[in-house]
Every structure is written in C-alpha cells, then in structure tokens.
Amino acid sequence: MHYKQLEAILWSIAFPGFGQFLNRDLIKGLTFLVLEIVINLCSSFNRAIIFSFNGEITKAIEVTNYQWLMFYPCVYMFGIWDAYKYSHPDVKPLAFLPFVISAYFVTVGLIYSSKIKIMGMILGPVWMPIIFLLPGLVIGFLLRKIILVRTHQ
C-alpha cells in the first residue's frame, strides 16, 4: 500500500468525505460529508457513542434510531473504499472484497447489538459493530486470496 492510499483511508476513517477531498474529488467528498451528517444526526449516533464510551450501553441503545443507523456501515465502508481506490492508480484485483464483507458484518453486528451478549455483556450499537468489523476484514481478505488463487491471478 502506498502512503497516499493509507492517508486517504485514515482520513476517511476519521470523517467520511475527507479522503475524497484529499483526492480532489469535491463532489463525492461533499456527498459523503452530507450523508455522514444526516445519518449521524437522524440516528443520534454521536449520543450513542458518548454513552457507549461512558459505559452506559442501555442509554446508547435507547437513544439510537436503528432505522437510520443501518445506512451507516455501508456508506462508511464505501467512503473508505472509494478514497482508497482513487488515491492511487494501482489498485490490486478484488481489493474491494474486505471493505464489502466488512460492511456486511458491521451491519449484522448492528442488527444484533442489543441482543447478543459477549462475556455476559450487551455491547450496544457502537462496540458490537466494531467487534464484527474484525471477522469481516479477515473473511474478506481470505475470500479475496482464495478467489485469486483459484483464478491464478
């Protein structure tokens, strides 16, 4: 990975749209920025983050509008992928797979975030999706490798 790609990924993780601004794609950057703000406000995600970081998971679950927050994982992961893809002309085949599979897993983590207990605790709409990101990345990278090996690329 080139430094420009890493920079684009890290800015996109910090705030969707910033990676696109870095790549001088102002329309896409503004689109991701607006989507981030709308979804964040309508889902009360910042309040859920604050409650989660303070260990008040029940309050985080109560304030979250899951209908809106369900949009967030795909928009967020696509924004990171887009910033990565357009930050350097040399993008490896099927490099999108870890991003896509992670978006699926994070969404599933969000769906079950108020029901599944890990070590006896419900983790809520912030921590459970973050935990589900890890297997999403691992499976995405493994799937990419398997496909590339089978197609001899």
TrEMBL record:
<feature type="transmembrane region" description="Helical">
    <location>
        <begin position="93"/>
        <end position="112"/>
    </location>
</feature>
<protein>
    <recommendedName>
        <fullName>Spore germination protein</fullName>
    </recommendedName>
</protein>
<keyword id="KW-1133">Transmembrane helix</keyword>
<feature type="transmembrane region" description="Helical">
    <location>
        <begin position="118"/>
        <end position="143"/>
    </location>
</feature>
<feature type="transmembrane region" description="Helical">
    <location>
        <begin position="65"/>
        <end position="81"/>
    </location>
</feature>
<keyword id="KW-0472">Membrane</keyword>
<feature type="transmembrane region" description="Helical">
    <location>
        <begin position="30"/>
        <end position="53"/>
    </location>
</feature>
<keyword id="KW-0812">Transmembrane</keyword>
